[in-house]
UniProtKB/TrEMBL annotation:
It comes from the Bacteria. This is Excinuclease ABC subunit C. The keyword Cytoplasm does not apply. One of its GO terms (biological process) is SOS response. Residues 96-191 form the UvrC family homology region profile domain. GO terms for cellular component: excinuclease repair complex. Coiled coil: none annotated. The lineage of its organism: Bacteria, Pseudomonadati, Spirochaetota, Spirochaetia, Spirochaetales. It comes from Borrelia duttonii CR2A. Transmembrane segments: none annotated. GO terms for molecular function: excinuclease ABC activity. Keywords: DNA damage, SOS response. InterPro entries: UVR_dom_sf, UvrABC_protein_C, UvrC_RNase_H_dom.
Amino acid sequence: MGQCLGVCYREDLEDEYRKEIEQIKHILNGNISKLLNDIEIKMKEVIMKENFEAAIKLKETKKSLIEISQTQIITKIDKLSEDYLYIHKTDSLNTIVILKYKDGKLTEKDIHFDESIYEKDELIEKFITQYYTSPNMIVPDKIHIFKKIDTSNITKLINELKNIKTEIIYKETKDNIKIIEMATSNAKLALITYNHEKTRLLKI
């Protein structure tokens, strides 16, 4: 007994019960930024206490929350294929995240790392050109970017080479803000994994 969070068993857990309900609502609505931030804080606390088992569990929880959130974000209920391209820049490495949607649902994600010193505008142009003109690449109906730049020449090049009619779009919407949050979380997790693997290989 005493394991249920319901107020029917323990009245002193009423506040905790309400907090759990609020967290569930946030997860179902895709609003996980605060939850992820809380987990980050707890991870730092347990690492300081050298409780690495708890840190691993928190990391797994964070990963699960992101995966759940991905299934909640619906961009449009239509028959279009759409890519969302986001670049997360740091001093040493750029992480490029491509979230691929089909019929309004996330179906795939592609992550690349780049060590160039290009400014974000130039990096977006160069990456889109190289990525979407590669021989085996299936170009979506729409490519969404999160920075306003002139992509008319790139669009023309891709359409001519692939004999298609794709669009490269910059548009600020509520859904896009959620997707940016998700892409940022994916980029940070990928960067942590990349750095850990790089450190491990250097020790071999």
